Amino acid sequence: MTQKHDTLTTRQGHPVTDNQSLRSVGERGPGTLENYQFIEKITHFDRERIPERVVHARGTAAHGYFEPYGTIGDEPASKYTRAKVLTKTGVRTPIFLRFSTVIGAKESPETARDPRGFAIKFYTEDGNWDLVGNNLKVFFIRDAIKFPDMIHAFKPDPVTNRQEPWRFYDFVQHHPEALHMVTWVKSPWGIPASYREMQGSSVNTYKLVNEDGVAVLCKFSFEPKQGVRNLTSEQAAQIQMHDIGHATKDLYEAIDRGDFPEWEMCVQVMSDDAHDELPFDPLDDTKRWPEDQFPLLPVGRIVLDRNPSNVFAETEQSAFGTGVLVDGIDFSDDKMLQGRTLSYSDTQRYRVGPNYLQLPINAPKCPYATNQRDGQMTYKVDGAGENPHVNYEPSSEGGLHEAPRNGPDYKQWVEGHVGRYQTSKTAADYQQTGERYRTFEDWEREDLIANIVGDLKQCPENIQLRMIWHFWHCDPDYGQRLAQGVGVDLEKAKALPPLPNRPAPGQDRPAPTLVDGQREAADKSTPTQRA
């Protein structure tokens, strides 16, 4: 019998002293490969469901194409990137776009209050590019080590097998960065009316790299030409009474009758530095880049014009990964992006198999050749150059060889002490949430309040008070209306102390300081380079 133990450990029995942050080079630096605690946690999480996706299980998809404008805003696209898929005009790149709900199981209703997945596979002439995002432009957490905890809290209770509001808000109350996403999801924006009438977003920050090896930070967005339309809880309930797959039906029938949905692809860009002048870290995926400061710059358009010929072979076996990039598009040090890049492809190898990339829906449409061999369900051998006996590189006997470079590598200077860090810019956790609340129309605000009140009434008082404390700090009207709706004393909520080990709302966390020994070591250290 397993002995009860209330201290968190790894599966190896090692005590976990920090379950909030993966190891990185400084506060904003890249994640490190020796993140054993994170790797054990995320790779086990990737294998929690067989064979259904752990998240994004309910989905539908369609084929189409991407057509670049050759410009980014008013500038030639080549100013920012050498990616041919974004710069080469007159070419339609085939795409496969999968829409999904996040938390629900494969047969869950599409009227669920839940973020929607917006995952695109671009079959470019330089290989596949996967852009794996959501409809909303922010997320609940900013550090990938928290992802299994978040999904566990949002999924059904392991005892009752029901999604319980108290579990959701118990998690959120300890993560103020989630307040922004909660405000979006609990508003009408949490239930898109159809897949054709919702936005798409990379959520994570990437980099664009040009011919000179110069990079800028960027976020991708997709704006529907059909307009944006959402549902209130009452409208969704009426639809669900008659149809749990209304969005799949809507998309299939629109394409079938020749009414092809279209989105304009846009990017936001900013220089690749820390941006101390901003109240938020641009690598923090729980924050939006204000569009008045960083406008949406049109890049091209995507059109969906063909339904899958078989749902299982294409929609269900399609496999996406945030690490699937083409030359001219690169990773940022966004900690969620770094963690997803390991997790997504690891999940696909487990869920579909080690040779998932041999399936037609996942294989590139350009020529490709690797020295990867064998494994379960191998049905062909990748091209092996002039000599099929040589499955290694380099070789003087006619094997595969390295490709020529398209331009200088982008090399980012990275220096810092490896450790576990939380962002020092925490004031925006409350600031952007309050700003979002105040921009909602009256009917959206009323629906938001009704939805959260309905949830909080099912939570114990300590969670009710802390959540009202959080929302009051985002906007006093927000907190007051929730307190009235739930029937709790607002003054009692306001009297709560700040969360342990977190700064009070409106105050940034002090930046990490070096003790004398660390400072001396830092002075002697040499910055490292990452290609």
Can you describe what's shown?
Helix content is 27%, strand content 17%. With 531 residues, the chain is of the alpha+beta class. The strands form four sheets. Strands 2, 5, 6, 7, 8, 9, 10, 11, 12 and 13 form a ten-stranded antiparallel β-sheet that branches. It has a two-stranded antiparallel ribbon with strand order 1-15. A two-stranded antiparallel sheet has the order 3-4. The protein is built from 15 helices and 16 strands. The model is unreliable at 514-531 (pLDDT under 50). The chain is globular.
Task: Briefly characterize the structure.
By secondary structure, this protein is an alpha+beta fold. The protein folds into 2 domains: 336 residues, Catalase core domain (Catalase HpII,  Chain A, domain 1), CATH 2.40.180.10; 67 residues, no CATH class.
Would you spell out the secondary-structure blueprint of this structure?
Layout: E1 23-25, H1 36-46, E2 59-68, E3 71-72, E4 75-76, H2 84-87, E5 93-101, E6 116-124, E7 127-134, H3 147-154, H4 165-172, H5 179-185, E8 200-201, E9 206-209, E10 215-224, H6 233-240, H7 246-256, E11 262-271, E12 297-306, H8 311-316, E13 329-331, H9 335-351, E14 412-414, E15 418-420, H10 428-439, H11 442-456, H12 461-474, H13 476-486, H14 490-494, H15 516-524, E16 528-530
Antiparallel strand pairs: 1-15, 2-5, 2-12, 3-4, 5-6, 6-7, 8-10, 9-10, 9-13, 10-11, 11-12, 14-16
Low-confidence stretches: 514-531
Say which CATH homologous superfamily of the largest domain is assigned. Catalase core domain
Terminal Cα span: 50 Å
Strand content: 15-25%
At CATH level 2, the architecture of the largest domain is Beta Barrel
Counting DSSP E segments of at least 2 residues, the number of strands comes to 16
Q: Give a short account of the largest sheet.
A: 10 strands, antiparallel
Kindly provide the name of the CATH class of the largest domain.
Mainly Beta
Give Rg in angstroms. Answer: 24 Å
Counting copies of identical and different chains, the oligomeric state is single chain
Shape: globular
Q: Let me know the average pLDDT.
A: 90
Q: Number of helix segments?
A: 15
Question: Which fold name fills CATH's third level, the topology of the largest domain?
Answer: Catalase HpII,  Chain A, domain 1
Q: What is the number of independent domains?
A: 2
